[in-house]
Specification:
The chain has 185 residues and is α+β, with helices and mostly antiparallel strands. It is built from four helices and eight strands. The longest helix is centred in the N-terminal third of the chain and has 17 residues.
C-alpha cells in the first residue's frame, strides 16, 4: 500500500545534510530563491509576489504533508540545520499507480558540490522503501541539461518528450519526463 501518512514529519540525514520540514522562518530564504532568476531559469512557475505568498506556500506544503498529498523537505547542512540551502520533495502523488513526482532546487552558492545528488539519493531511497512507491517521475524543462544529467546519473530514464505541452509566460514549452522504477518491485 502506498503511504504518505506518517505520524510525524520524517527528517532524513545524509553524510553532509539534514532534510527537514519547512518552517515559517525559511520564508525569506525561500522567497529569495524563488525570485532569483538564476535559480528559477528552468523552473517554469510564476514568481512569488511577496513574503506573505511564500508563508502561505510553506503552510500549504505542511498541510499537504498532513493530508498525505506531498512530502517536501528543506535541504540544510548538518552543521547549520536552520539555514535553508534548497528544497527537494514529492508532489503530484498518484496513489492508484504508486507514483510520485520529485522536484528539487538549490541556491547557486551550493551548485556543483554534489548536494542535490546526495539529497536525491536519500529521497529516492525513502520513496521506494518508506513510501512504497513503484515509480518516481521528474518533469524537466528540455533546456535544463544539469537536471537531466543528475537524473540520468541516478538511474532515471527518459520516458517522454512532450511538444509544447506547457503554457508559461505567453509561450508553449516542451517538457521531458524521466522515470525511475523501484528495483525492489
Amino acid at each position: 500500500m502506498l503511504s504518505l501518512n506518517f505520524s510525524k514529519f520524517p527528517i532524513l540525514y545524509t553524510e553532509r545534510l539534514i532534510l527537514r520540514e519547512h518552517v515559517l522562518s525559511d520564508a525569506e530564504t525561500l522567497y529569495a530563491m524563488r525570485t532569483n532568476e538564476t535559480v528559477m531559469k528552468y523552473i517554469d512557475r510564476e514568481r512569488p509576489k511577496d513574503l506573505l505568498e511564500i508563508k502561505t506556500f510553506i503552510t500549504t506544503f505542511n498541510d499537504g504533508f498532513e493530508n498525505g498529498d506531498n512530502l517536501a523537505w528543506v535541504i540544510a547542512a548538518k552543521e547549520k540545520p536552520e539555514k535553508m540551502i534548497g528544497s527537494i520533495g514529492y508532489w503530484r502523488t498518484d496513489y492508484a499507480n504508486h507514483r510520485a513526482e520529485i522536484g528539487y532546487m538549490l541556491h547557486p552558492d551550493y551548485w556543483r558540490k554534489g548536494i542535490i545528488s546526495e539529497a536525491l539519493k536519500r529521497t529516492i531511497d525513502f520513496g521506494f522503501i518508506d513510501m512504497n512507491l513503484h515509480s518516481i517521475k521528474a518533469n524537466i524543462n528540455v533546456e535544463n541539461n544539469a537536471s537531466r544529467q543528475i537524473l540520468l546519473k541516478h538511474g532515471f530514464v527518459k520516458e517522454a518528450h512532450f511538444k509544447q505541452d506547457y503554457y508559461f509566460r505567453g509561450q508553449f514549452l516542451d517538457s521531458e519526463i524521466y522515470g525511475l522504477l523501484n528495483p525492489n518491485h
